[in-house]
């Protein structure tokens, strides 16, 4: 009998275990609490000094879905940057004007543009944080 026939063959005894007994023991160890605890021994919480039977199990209240404001704000920023770059590269006149501007930019103007970009990034990060704080109800 080949391996595929042995795998697809029906077991003769419907009450026979699917795995051998050695494989069942391989999945549980004596170190886990589930393997050593019995139903008549209560599980205690050492930090609180209470048993699990005395602690009421309260289901957490359902909450509204969380709005990821940072993803929305940063996504809008990157969409705006992509739109501006697409506008520049699709038209030959815009591409030439951008090329001329890049060739003639002075070091002082470059520093000011870098500061403007860093300030814009900080503004976007602050806006995302502000929107998150407003919607979460914290002050």
Keywords summarizing the entry:
single chain, 139 residues, mainly alpha, two-stranded antiparallel ribbon, 3% strand
* Strand order in space, largest sheet: 1-2
Principal-axes shape call = elongated
Please give the number of β-strands. Answer: 2
Which residue ranges are poorly predicted, with pLDDT under 50 across at least 5 consecutive positions? none
Task: Evaluate the radius of gyration.
Answer: 33 Å
Nearest-integer average pLDDT = 76
Number of helices: 6
**Main sheet characteristics:** 2 strands, antiparallel
Structural class: mainly alpha
The helix/strand series, from N terminus to C terminus, equals HHHEEHHH
Query: Terminal Cα separation, in Å?
Result: 73 Å
Helix content: 55-70%
Quick overview of this protein structure:
Helix content is 58%, strand content 3%. It has six helices and two strands.
How would you characterize the overall build of this protein?
Helices cover 58% and strands 3% of the residues. It has helices spanning 3-8, 21-26, 33-36, 69-90, 92-104, 107-136; strands at 44-45, 50-51. Helix 4 crosses helix 5 and helix 4 (69-90) runs antiparallel to helix 6. It starts with a helix and ends with a helix. The model has no long low-confidence stretch (mean pLDDT 76).
């Amino acid at each position: 009998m080949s391996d595929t026939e042995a795998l697809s063959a029906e077991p003769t005894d419907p009450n026979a275990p699917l795995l051998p007994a050695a494989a069942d023991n391989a999945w549980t160890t004596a170190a886990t609490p589930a393997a050593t605890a019995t139903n008549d021994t209560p599980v205690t919480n050492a930090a609180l000094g209470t048993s699990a039977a005395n602690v009421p199990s309260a289901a957490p209240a359902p909450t509204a879905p969380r709005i990821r404001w940072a993803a929305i704000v940063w996504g809008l920023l990157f969409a705006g940057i992509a739109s501006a770059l697409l506008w520049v590269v699709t038209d030959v006149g815009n591409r030439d004007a951008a090329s001329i501007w890049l060739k003639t930019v002075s070091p002082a103007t470059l520093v000011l543009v870098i500061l403007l970009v860093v300030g814009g990034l900080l503004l976007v990060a602050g806006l995302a944080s502000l929107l998150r704080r407003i919607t979460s109800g914290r002050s």
